[in-house]
Amino acid sequence: MLHYLPDFCTGIADLGAAFLLMYGLHRMASPVTAPSGILLAGIGMAVAVLASFLIIFDISGGARQLLPENAGLAVLALVIGGGIAWVAGRRVAMTAMPQMVAIYNGMGGGAAGAIAAVELFGRHATGYVALTVTLLGALIGAISFSGSIIAWAKLQEVLKNPWRFRGQRIVNAVVFAATVGLGGYLLWFDHTSVLPPNLITAFFAAAIIAGILITLPIGGADMPVIIAIYNAFTGLAVGLEGFVLQNPALMIAGMVVGAAGLMLTLVMAKAMNRSVSNVVFANFGEVAKGGKSKITGDLKPTEASDAAVFMRYASKVIIVPGYGLAAAQGQQKLWEFVQLLQANGVNVRFAIHPVAGRMPGQMDVLLAEAGVPYDLIFQLDDINDDFATTDIALVIGANDVVNPAARTDKSSPIYGMPILNVDKAKQVYVLKRGTGKGYAGIQNELFYSPNCNMVYGDAAATLAKMIEAVRGLKAAA
Question: Which residues pair with 166 in a beta bridge?
Fold first, then answer.
């Protein structure tokens, strides 16, 4: 009876981990319950990790004997890795969150690839089905690993410019085909007892190179998409390796991560008015050269205090946050300013574009961090029609997602992309550090519109001036 106890305990633990992961994902569907959902999913993953250690115990004759000699190394790896993740997670700035997501996603793909390597070098995966699944997980995991590292380097500005050369797509296709060919050749050895180590090494090396080559030409505008795609890749790789190991927790965790990544990819593609096939196979990540239409009008700078006074006496205000707000860490000042406006009877709401910032949901998290109530935050489809009846729209650090060229200029690289209808407001103020372009590399027609004024400066410092201006009005009264 005792002989079956480890399997029973492991099964119960896997079932509990699966429930916590799926229920946690369900709660992540709402901003209100998302924090508890993340906590529950984290507990589920911890249970799955602990359950894995039950496998290394054997119960026979009433005594527990530790079987593997490297169990101590596994515990040490968990302690070191968990400690680094804990410290990094607490210290990471909001602006660096996309980089952290990218590097952690890469580590997940690398872990899946490492599991596949153990299976292949140790020849544990026997039979064509198991070997095929192992090789597929290794391919996807290795590409996600190296591609995510390149994505991290781009977001961290270690690599500042996309790297392109003539015939790059042909080279990428050849490297990928060679990788798949090596995998197919390894399948041919299924009838033997040992796979050739040199071929396994070449297969992993080719897959890693393929991930690097695929990601190097990606431009900044497509970075949210590549993060979502590699997130889906990592989940798929983990799920496949879970199937090979017959580990339900890995399979469920992989499916959850893969499904979430796929959903994000679809949302990003829709928000950019591009099909997933177009994102993956056609002109992926190419830097835009700009539209051909000539922009008329002039930039009209104004003082922060003047913008604040007009907003104080407005009836309805919509605020559009962008990456510039995150870079300036101005969310607390923004919420303080909004509270002053609300105290004076101004109806203030926030409009979020799906691809604002450098990763999906970054602006939502940024506002939540400052304490902005969820009922004041609206997505594009829910608030876009309201700009036409809005007195003032305040844009903070956003660029391409409010560019009217997406509606009118067929030569523009962002033509057809859904945008926030900021230009339809009666008055627009744009808080911006300078005259730089957005990720798409084009000038913003909004900035030259007759109803738009530019407020130059760091977002946090500018908002502080706006707060002083509104308080000054109250003091003078």
Answer: none
CA neighbor of 109 nearest in space, from 155, 154, 148: 148
Phi, psi of 350 (to 5 degrees): -115, 140
Per-residue pLDDT at 477: 55
H or E element, residue 86: helix 71-91
Spatial CA neighbour of 310 closest among 449, 447, 473: 473
* Identity of the residue numbered 408: T
Known catalytic residue at 58 = no
Contact 403, 465 (CB under 8 A): no
Of 52, 28, 29, 54, the closest CA to residue 40 belongs to: 28
pLDDT in tens, 59-92: 444 444 444 556 677 778 888 888 888 888 888 7
CA distance linking residue 331 with residue 343, whole number of Å: 18
3-state secondary structure of 351: strand
Between the alpha carbon of residue 449 and those of residues 96, 293, 442, the distances in Å are 33, 15, 16
Name 469's Cβ contacts closer than 8 Å, sequence gap at least 6.
Answer: 304, 305, 308, 309, 312
Count CB neighbours of 16 within 10 A: 16
CATH code 3.40.50.1220 region(s) in the chain: 304-476
What Cα–Cα distance (Å) separates residue 240 from each residue in 89, 132, 249, 264? 28, 10, 12, 20
Marked catalytic residue, from 222, 400, 409, 423: 400
- Quick check: 313 pLDDT over 90? yes
Helices and strands in the chain: count of H runs, count of E runs: 17, 8
Sequence-separated (6 or more) residues with CB below 8 Å from residue 226: 147, 151, 215, 218, 285
Mean confidence (pLDDT) of the chain: 81
Q: How far separated are the first and last CA of the chain, in Å rounded?
A: 83
Residue 473: predicted pLDDT: 79
Can you tell me whether residue 426 is helix, strand or coil? Answer: coil
The reply to whether CATH 3.10.20.90 applies to domain 304-476 is no
Spatial distance between the Cα atoms of 109 and 359, rounded to a whole number of angstroms:
19
Give me 274's structure tokens.
């591009």
pLDDT at 389: 95
- The one-letter amino acid code at 136 reads L
Cα–Cα distance between 283 and 218 in angstroms, integer? 9
Residue 343's pLDDT band, with cuts at 50, 70 and 90, is very high
The residues near 273 (Cβ < 8 Å, ≥ 6 apart) are 416, 417, 418
Question: Over the range 34-60, which residues count as b (16 or more CB within 10 Å of their CB) and which as e?
Answer: beebeebbeebbebbeebbebeebebe
Inter-residue contact 358 to 224 (CB < 8 Å) = yes
Most confident of 115-129, 182-196, 230-244: 230-244
- Given CA atoms 360, 366, 367, 369 in this order, what sign does their dihedral have? positive
* Type of residue numbered 190: D
